[in-house]
Design a protein that fits this description.
heterodimer, A: alpha/beta, Beta Polymerase, domain 2, 2 domains, five-stranded mixed beta sheet, two-stranded parallel sheet, 6 helices, 36% helix, flat, B: alpha/beta, 5 helices, 5 strands, elongated
Chain lengths: 231, 163
């Protein structure tokens, strides 16, 4: 990126933060516009995090003696059995971010433990947290017996995203993981048949990543729009 | 006149061979059903009893080797584009292609940001008739088919081509 472009982006982001989204939408170059949008998201997130730390500081100063208890039975169950694996837990305890290393073991635990019995994997999706940030996989689990739900979040490094596969734990995960691999390039270690699900097998790149740029040709066929002047 | 007079039964056709071939080809263009997306529903409706494609001599075929016309009905993805080309090449001459709907014609709603969509089926196979619409109603498809029939009728397959 040249200095001019950086300046253009920073100006547009400042205007957008003040509430004027048109300044970003008016950028003509597509990749530049995408970069500006990513920068905006980043700026917004930074502002939010700042706010959060301020409020939590206030809360701590008010009542610092009581440690924050996770808000759901599932969260406290996980904290009891795998204390070192939890990175972050939401206030209601329904959404827990864990480290990737022991994920397969934790998955079996969550499926089989009598108090958890999360026997159904409802959904598995990837998330791109933005330019320069990590990729994330989210598992939405549900228990038929207890009728409770849990969302498990696992972050993966953008450059070599690897996460243990739970395809053998929940058979549902088979195609879910293949789709996530297809769209985000996240490698699920231990998956027995990790191929692309939707895109052709010789497709280049990971389409749902925010820095994705489509290839110019595919088997000699032009990929981006070519019929200029139709609009 | 004396040579030909009263020599034939009354079921003889006297016409130019070109016109005869054009008539025969244009009135029985069997089509290769290529339903890829929602346009396929309209194509099925066109072939079904209310609109009855049979009355203009069209029968849906499931094999490219038995078909004269390929109706590309729906969004052609990059993955499918290679297959479309291969199936077109398997059809016997003379062969025609109808591009049905916005997606097959230009990419449709996936026109600008659809990385996985072919921006018009004419990038891989030659197209004879474009039918606009999203999806086109059966009347529109029939109009396109009649246009194709006109085109086939006007062809002169036996006449020597002069450059």
């Amino acid at each position: 990126m040249t200095a001019d472009q950086e300046k253009l982006i920073s100006e547009a982001v400042e205007k957008a933060l003040a509430g004027d989204m048109d300044s970003i939408n008016a950028i003509e170059d597509r990749s530049l516009r995408a970069k500006a949008k990513a920068a905006l998201v980043k700026a917004k997130r930074a502002a939010k995090a700042e706010q959060k730390t301020e409020t939590s500081d206030d809360a701590k100063s008010a009542d610092s003696s009581v440690p924050q208890e996770p808000g759901s039975p599932l969260a406290s169950l996980l904290t009891a059995f795998y204390p070192g694996e939890i990175v972050e837990s939401s206030n209601d305890g329904n959404s827990i971010q864990i480290k990737p290393e022991k994920w397969e073991e934790i998955a079996v635990f969550l499926r089989d433990h009598a108090d958890a019995l999360l026997d159904q994997l409802e959904c598995l999706t990837g998330v791109d947290l933005g330019e320069g940030e990590e990729l994330q996989v989210r598992y939405n689990l549900h228990s038929m017996k207890h009728r409770h739900k849990l969302e498990v979040l696992i972050n993966a490094d953008r450059n070599s995203p690897e996460i243990p596969s739970v395809e053998t734990v929940w058979r549902m995960a088979d195609w879910f993981e293949r789709e996530t691999y297809d769209m985000y390039g996240i490698v699920f270690n231990g998956h027995r048949d990790l191929r692309r699900l939707l895109c052709p097998e010789d497709w280049e790149g990971w389409p749902l990543r925010k820095d994705y740029e489509e290839q110019k040709t595919y088997h000699g066929i032009v990929v981006p729009k070519v019929k200029e002047g139709w609009e | 006149m004396g040579l030909l007079e009263h020599k034939f039964q009354d079921n003889v056709v006297v016409a130019s061979m070109d016109k005869l071939l054009g008539w025969a080809r244009s009135t029985s263009p069997w089509f290769f059903q290529f339903g890829l997306a929602c346009c396929a529903i309209e194509m099925m409706a066109t072939a079904a009893s209310r609109h009855d494609l049979m009355r203009i001599g069209m029968i849906p075929r499931s094999s490219p080797r038995q078909a004269d016309v390929m109706i590309v009905a729906g969004t052609v993805t990059m993955k499918m584009a290679l297959r479309v080309k291969k199936l077109y090449e398997q059809m016997a001459n003379p062969k025609y292609v109808i591009s049905m709907g916005s997606c097959a014609t230009s990419g449709g709603p996936y026109w600008q940001y659809g990385y996985h969509v072919l921006k018009g089926v004419d990038l891989v196979v030659p197209v004879d008739v474009y039918v606009p619409g999203c999806p086109p109603r059966p009347e529109a498809l029939i109009e396109g088919l009649l246009k194709l029939q006109e085109k086939i009728q006007a062809e002169r397959p036996l006449t020597k081509k002069t450059a």
